[in-house]
Write a structure and sequence with these properties.
Elements (H helix, E strand, L loop, with lengths): L7 E7 H7 L4 E5 L8 E4 L6 H15 L2 E6 L15 E3 L3 H16 L9 E6 L1 H11 L1 H17 L5 E7 L17 E5 L4 H7 L2 H7 L8 E6 L3 E6 L6 H11 L28 H5 L4
Parallel strand pairs: 3-7, 3-8, 4-5, 4-6, 6-7
Antiparallel strand pairs: 1-2, 1-10, 8-9, 9-10
Helix pairs in contact: 2-8, 3-5, 4-5
Bound molecules: adenosine-5'-triphosphate and magnesium ion.
Length: 284
């Protein structure tokens, strides 16, 4: 069996191998600080963005760091995360961004020399920004600026951002920032205009007549490596959820977060260590 090192994230299985020979051939990508692992997941409603995000969250949680999760839409997929210290619903997503942005800032200023991996996952980023642009333009612009800064400076500081949206329109991605994602994924039966926003023309031609269902699609890695992927739904939901809860709950090492920004805010955390051993054997 193929071994996957800790800095390799499995995105899904190779689409061709899955359908041609029924083979489960992992499609992996480097998520160490030497590679741009900022990720954008796009696709129409129901294309599998949230379920894919959930699988990615669990896999990252298994190998490294802590996760902040912004859930603008608050649909049922992530219901079980409500109550976790780093779960930020609706307009609280901005607090998640600020917490992660401050961690990046502390690293840049030299206050925090650690490179403890931090990931901000933001479901329905575009809808969130558009809603804000409609009623508080300054706030929306400040959010976009901070996201752009994380995209530009986060990699070497071990701060990564993963967002999902239906269509990555330029209005929420100033100065071409949607091209700053090292991992671009378009899921499901997509319309050409979504591909055109993220993929160079020759890659769009390579898609041909493939007919992607939910959880299947195209991944462009580092702007040059085109893969077709299939992400099966993870059967063991309990284990998946335990990992995601752990990712949003485990304590961040001292010094990573400034005192004023402590996301736990003095709340006594559930003892995540009691189920740590069982988490070690989880396969997602
Ligand atoms: N990897 C997958 N394999 C098979 N079916 C999937 C997969 N991912 C999602 N689905 C199916 O598609 C449905 C919608 O998935 P999901 O909620 O992740 O989509 P979404 O893109 O986030 O949609 P929305 O834009 O409405 O939030 C799921 O309830 C599930 O039935
Ligand atoms: Mg969704």
């Amino acid at each position: 069996m193929m071994t996957i090192s800790d800095s390799n994230l499995m995105l899904g299985y190779d689409y061709g191998a899955w359908y041609d020979g029924g083979e489960k051939k992992p499609v992996c990508t480097d998520i160490s600080t030497s590679t741009n692992s900022h990720t954008i997941l796009c696709g129409m409603s129901g294309s599998g963005k949230s379920k894919s995000e959930e699988a990615i969250m669990a896999r990252i949680a298994k190998s490294e760091g802590a996760i902040f999760f912004g859930d603008f839409k608050q649909d049922d997929t992530f219901k079980y995360l409500r109550g976790c210290p780093r779960y930020y619903p609706y307009y609280q997503t901005e607090e998640a961004l600020n917490a992660v942005y401050n961690i990046l800032h502390r690293r840049q200023s030299g206050e925090d020399k650690s490179r403890y991996p931090i990931t901000l996952i933001w479901d329905e980023y575009m809808a969130n920004v558009l809603a804000l642009l409609g009623n508080d333009k300054k706030r929306a612009e400040s959010i976009m600026r901070k996201v752009s800064e994380i995209l530009m400076l986060g990699r070497s500081m071990a701060v990564r951002i993963i967002i999902s949206c239906q269509r990555p329109d330029a209005s929420a991605f100033p100065s071409g920032s949607r091209l700053n994602y090292g991992i671009c994924i378009v899921l499901g039966a997509s319309i050409r205009s979504i591909y055109e926003m993220l993929l160079p023309k020759e890659y769009i031609d390579a898609i041909g007549d493939r007919n992607f269902k939910a959880g299947e699609g195209v991944a462009l890695l580092q702007g040059s490596d085109l893969r077709f992927i299939k992400m099966p739904l993870i059967k063991n939901e309990k284990q998946l959820q335990a990992l995601c809860i752990d990712a949003l709950t485990r304590e961040i090492p001292e010094g990573v977060v400034g005192e004023a920004d402590d996301p736990h805010g003095g709340i006594v955390l559930p003892d995540v260590h009691t189920h740590k051993h069982s988490l070690d054997d989880i396969r997602v």
